[in-house]
Description:
It is built from 12 helices and 13 strands. It is α/β, with parallel strands linked by helices. It folds into 3 domains: about 1-30; about 40-155 and about 295-380, Rossmann fold (3-Layer(aba) Sandwich), CATH 3.40.50; about 160-290 and about 385-405, Response regulator (Rossmann fold, 3-Layer(aba) Sandwich), CATH 3.40.50.2300.
Amino acid sequence: MPITRLRLAALSAVAIFAVAVSGSALAQKKYDTGATDTEIKIGNIMPYSGPASSYGLIGKTEEAYFKMINDQGGINGRKINFITYDDGYSPPKAVEQARKLVESDEVLVVFNPLGTPSNSAIQKYLNSKKVPQLFVATGAAKWNDPKGFPWTMGWQPSYQSEAQIYAKYILKEKPNAKIAVLYQNDDFGKDYLKGLRDGLGAKASMIITEESYETTEPTIDSHIVKLKSTGADVFLSITTPKFAAQAIKKIAEIEWKPLQIVANVSASVGSVLQPAGFENAQGLLSAAYAKDGADPQWNDDPGMKKWSAFIDKYMPGANRSDGNLVYGYGVAQTLVETLRLCGDDLTRANVMKQAASLKDFTPDTLIPGVKINTSATDFAPLSELQMMRFKGEKWELFGDIISGDITTN
C-alpha cells in the first residue's frame, strides 16, 4: 500500500507539474488583433495609381519578400498575410484604406504606408487606435516623435537630414552659389526645404528662388523655364520620380547647365534617370544609404547576392536598376527582424517595443557602414548617407558616410 500511495503521489506531482508548465507556456503567447498561432496580418497602403505610381513597385517587392519568408516557414512558425491597398497618393483615400485595414481586415500593424501627405492624414487615427504605423515610407522628420506619436516610426533618413547634407556640400564646393529650388507643395517638399534652409544657416540667402508645383500638374516644364531665367547655377529638385525625370529632361532641352541635385527618393536609375535619358543626367548629384542593384561593384557583396537570388526567384524580369526593388527588400527585411524579435508576444505594444530596440541591424541592401539603430527616444532608424554622382549609367559614391544628425553653425 505505501508503494501505491507513493506512486499516486508521484503521478499527481507529475500531473500538477505538467499542467503548470503547459499553463506557463500558454501564458507566454500573447496576441493582439491580427496575430494567431499560425498567422500575422500586415496591412499596407501604396500609390499603385496616380502621380507617384512608380513607387507601387515597393509594395510588390514587399509582397514578394513576404512570400519568400512564408516559403521558408514564416516567422517563428507563423505565415505573413500581407494586405496592400492603393490610395493613388491621395490623403482622403489613404484615410479610407487605413480604416479598412484596421476595422475590417483587423491587421496587427500598418507597415510602410507611402507618402508624406498620406501618412500625415492617417497618423492621428492610427495612434488613437494604438495600431503601429511602422517604418513609414517617407523621410519627414515628424515621424520621429515618440512622445507625441508613440505608434508611428520612420525608416529612411529624414528629408531635413538629407537636405542639410546637400547644404554642407554646397557651402564647401560652391560657396558663392545661386540656388534655385523646385519643391512639391506639400509636407514632403516643405520639410525638405526647411532642412536646406537650416543647413545653409546664415547663408540661406544663397537660395535665390523657390518654386513649388502641385502633384496634379501634368508637367513641370514651365517651372523649369522660369527657374532658368533667374540665373541660378545650382538646381535642387525636391520632387517625386515622375517630376524628377521631367525636370532633368527639360533642363537639358533648354540648355541650362546648373549643378543639379536630386532628392534620394527620386534617385532611381530605372524609374527616373533612364526615362530622363542617361545623357541628360551626367554629373547629377544625390545621396544614398542603400546599394544600387544594377551596379557591378556589388556583384560579390554577400547581401546583394541574397537580394539578387530573391529577384531571380520571386520577381523574375524585374528591372534591377529600379531602386524601389532595393528599398522594398530592405524595409521588409527590417519588419521581419522586428517580428522575429517579438517571439510569441505579438501584441502591438511589443511590436513597437522591439522596433524601438534595434541595435546595429544591417539589412542586406544598406551601404557598408550604414546601420539601423533605434531606442525608446529615437524613432529614426536610419540617419546616415553618402554623396554620389551619376556617371555613365550608374551612380558613383564619393566622400565619407555622413550622419544626417548634423549640426550646422
